[in-house]
Predict the structure.
Amino acid sequence: MVRKTKKTWVVVADSAAAQFFQIHENASGRSLEPAASDMASGIHRHASDLKSDEPGRAFAGAGSSARSAMEPHHDYHKLEKHEFVRAVSASLEKAFEAHKFERLVLVAPVRSLGEFRKEFSPKLMAALWREIPKDVMKLGPQDLWARIGPALEEGPPLAQD
């Protein structure tokens, strides 16, 4: 009996980059193959590149003529990270609606997993099959599969129910 496997994407992400793979099954076993173009944010830019102006100046206190620079109200790097997570989530949403995958495995540091969960739509959350809390962004497909493959083998098979 031939089992039909569900198309499963593995997204490896951190706050600055994301890689998209598809689990490929053949006679020799499973492996990862690129599924979409990688995404990268401008997260490594200087904070001064992320804002347009110098901070404003304010008087030091009542009756004083001394002025000092005000601290910005936002952490621009944090805002950039949130925007990147939104962009990756939107890209995954489009791919899911285009039926490019049926199941999703998300591999990211713990903090990033939480941010993705907040951004995922209910449909994308329903497609989320596994979350793996690891920072493995710098690994190639073979090394990555060696690290996460066992975690995927432990659960239910990829075959449709």
